[in-house]
Amino acid sequence: MSFFENLLKTGFFLVFLGFLLLFLGTLLSAGQGNGDFGGLILIGPIPIAFGSSPGITSTMMWAGLVIALVYLVVLRRFR
Fold first, then answer.
1. For the segment 2-56, what is each residue's pLDDT rounded down to a tens digit?
2. Which of 20, 49, 51 is nearest to 37 (CA)?
3. What is the top-level taxon of the source organism (predicted)?
4. Does this model's pTM top 0.70?
5. Pair 54, 28 in one domain
């Protein structure tokens, strides 16, 4: 198998894993009554974070910055 086939399989696996974790997290937190939430939108390498509290918003922003840096490192390496 070539490198790009492995990369494609890894990408599909990570997307599936993300959906699975999102589903499990929703099920586990449904009964707790915790009203905090947060999210992250990536437009290219630019993260946009939001949340219901400042702590969650800053956590989402840090996660977005890490993802953006990884994206830029990978992009630069394979060009």
1. 888 888 999 999 999 999 998 888 777 766 766 778 888 888 778 889 888 898 8
2. 51
3. Archaea
4. no
5. no
